[in-house]
């Protein structure tokens, strides 16, 4: 929801409550109502695997990537940090993208 629309809804709440209700409180109520709406999309749950073959069996039609949990980045096979580090695991690419992890751009 855009900022203008939030302010418009806050103004409506302010008018409905009367002049004793502060505008900031009306805006806070509006944010609570909007944030609790069912339109909020949840992230796809990740299924992390220790070994690449396990991940490939889990998602045979998808690409397996290495997900670095600390950096919030996933690496494709052939990239420098693929399958490196202690804070990552193999996951399906669609699950990583659905959970809002970003792809590594690599060296350019």
Report on this model:
With 108 residues, the protein is an alpha+beta fold. The protein contains four helices and four strands. The protein has helices spanning 3-17, 23-35, 52-58, 93-98; strands at 64-68, 73-75, 88-92, 102-103. The radius of gyration is 22 Å and the shape is elongated.
**H/E topology pattern:** HHHEEEHE
Strand content: 5-15%
Described by the principal axes of the CA atoms, the overall outline is: elongated
Distance between the termini: 36 Å
Structural class: alpha+beta
Domain count: 2
Helix content class:
25-40%
Query: Number of DSSP strands?
Result: 4
Question: If you average the pLDDT, what whole number results?
Answer: 77
Overall radius of gyration: 22 Å
Q: Give, in spatial order, the strands making up the sheet with the most strands.
A: 3-1-2-4
List the total number of helices: 4
List keywords for this structure.
single chain, 108 residues, alpha+beta, 2 domains, four-stranded mixed β-sheet, 38% helix
Short description:
The protein is elongated. A hairpin with a 4-residue loop joins strand 1 (64-68) and strand 2 (73-75). Helices cover 38% and strands 14% of the residues.
SSE arrangement:
Elements: H1 3-17, H2 23-35, H3 52-58, E1 64-68, E2 73-75, E3 88-92, H4 93-98, E4 102-103
Helix pairs in contact: 1-2
């Amino acid at each position: 929801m855009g900022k203008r629309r939030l302010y418009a809804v806050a103004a409506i709440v302010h008018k409905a409550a009367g002049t004793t209700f502060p505008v900031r409180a009306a805006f806070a109520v509006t944010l609570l109502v909007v944030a609790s709406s069912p339109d909020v999309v949840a992230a796809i749950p990740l299924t992390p695997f220790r070994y690449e073959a396990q991940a490939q069996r889990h998602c045979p039609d998808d690409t397996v990537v290495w997900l670095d949990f600390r950096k919030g980045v996933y690496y494709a096979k052939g990239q420098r940090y693929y399958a490196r580090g202690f804070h990552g695991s193999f996951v399906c690419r669609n699950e990583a993208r659905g959970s809002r992890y970003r792809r590594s751009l690599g060296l350019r």
